[in-house]
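Input:
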Amino acid sequence: GQQVQQSPASLVLQEGENAELQCNFSSTATQLQWFYQSPGGSLVSLLSNPSGTKHTGRLTSTTVTKERRSSLHISSSQTTDSGTYLCAPNMGYKLTFGTGTSLLVDP
Amino acid sequence: ETAVFQTPNYHVTQVGNEVSFNCKQTLGHDTMYWYKQDSKKLLKIMFSYNNKQLIVNETVPRRFSPQSSDKAHLNLRIKSVEPEDSAVYLCASSLTGGARDTQYFGPGTRLLVL
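Output:
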């Protein structure tokens, strides 16, 4: 089955710094979602990026499909960015989630 | 804007009781899902339904049974809950269920089994 590895497991930044999150998966996927999970637990879809580069706000995702990897770049981090970032390739009728990167942005 | 709704937000119960969680989506999607997030925060698929038909059942114990009245509703019943069922249960939906879909999640139902 699909295996998903995310790195780093945790990250601490000072407000204003940039973050680079990595996601590697074992089987080719035709869709890859990045999610943000707040400390309270709600799951928000940030980006759907099956290949190439996509931007939304301060977020940039780059997915290299044939290498089975994706990255999420957060620019000019804010304290409200603190939480857990999850990637999930779509294998059809199910997402397989990584263990996430826990991000803490200090003021 | 929330388009996948779950009730209740939180439920506390005793071992052996039956519980039922509700999920509704207003996106007009054909496919709905239940995921479980355990105490280690790992999110795993439990069930997928497409137009009221079961598509995926990921080796879930038989005490769990999904119930779909129409494609906009997918409920989850747990007969005789166990302590290891304490978790957050997340409902999601997507347009077709295909591998190119984007899935949209509800706020979750947190279950605590005493």
